[in-house]
Amino acid sequence: MNAVIELLKQHRSIRKFRPDAIEQETLNTLIEAGQCAATSSFIQACTVIQVDNPTLRTELAECAGNQAYVASAPRFLVFCADMRRHQLACEMHGAEMQSGYTEQFLTASLDCALFAQNVAVAAESMGLGLVYIGGLRNQIERVSDLLQLPELVYPVFGLCLGFPDQDPETKPRLPLNVVLKQDRYDDTQDHDAIKAYDEQVLEYYRTRTGGTKEMTWSGQISEMLVKEARPHMLPYLQSRGFLKQ
Ligand SMILES: Cc1cc2nc3c(=O)[nH]c(=O)nc-3n(C[C@H](O)[C@H](O)[C@H](O)COP(=O)(O)O)c2cc1C
């Protein structure tokens, strides 16, 4: 163990923030830490939009299914997968970019996730708390219009940042043998391991909610994955120039 691993193991999402401001200089440092993440083929395909305008924040909170902390958190960032400046780079060399490949969608989205997680860890190292906001994709067209996103740019998720005004427990993760396999994919132990893990999650929710939420991990997943998952995403992404081939 070392200080970095200790910090990573203490992660928990924060959804209630103190009003204390995060200075622009601090935010810039976090973004620079994000930029240091590895990036597929050096494409650097992540653009962050810092949203300060309160009206815009309220509208984005609505887009995310009325998640109030999107409007109230001291800072709100939108991480966008961005293949637009690559078009410019090609133009600078008289080349015509071939866009729309699934591979490009994947690498740009991965770049965003790695960038954001660097920002998240850097923020936590400074005592800040955060929660990712995938809910923005509920109304992704409206989010794109509000932020005036051009073709080849899409908002992957948001991130609320601020000093924590709550201290929730860390949420237990799956047992190591479920996520770490040796030499081949062997899931013969997974059923029993997940059953044991379900007990742990049940206990976590009982403690955290004073007994009002009784939920296992597999129960939660089985409720979620029988519903459709934002089916508007494919036509949306295609309309923005992604996932065409
Ligand atoms: C890409 C992504 C999107 C998420 N979207 C939301 C969201 O819209 N609202 C929210 O309250 N939490 C959101 N979360 C937080 C997860 O619910 C949370 O990370 C997960 O339940 C594990 O809890 P923990 O972060 O406290 O360990 C998101 C997390 C990720 C990685």
UniProtKB/TrEMBL annotation:
Its EC number is 1.-.-.-. Residues 8-162 form the Nitroreductase domain. The keyword Secreted does not apply. Transmembrane segments: none annotated. GO terms for molecular function: oxidoreductase activity. CDD domains: NfsA-like (cd02146). Keywords: Flavoprotein, FMN, NADP, Oxidoreductase. InterPro entries: Flavin_OxRdtase_Frp, Nitroreductase, Nitroreductase-like. It comes from the Bacteria. Belongs to the flavin oxidoreductase frp family. PANTHER family: OXYGEN-INSENSITIVE NADPH NITROREDUCTASE (PTHR43425). This is Oxygen-insensitive NADPH nitroreductase.
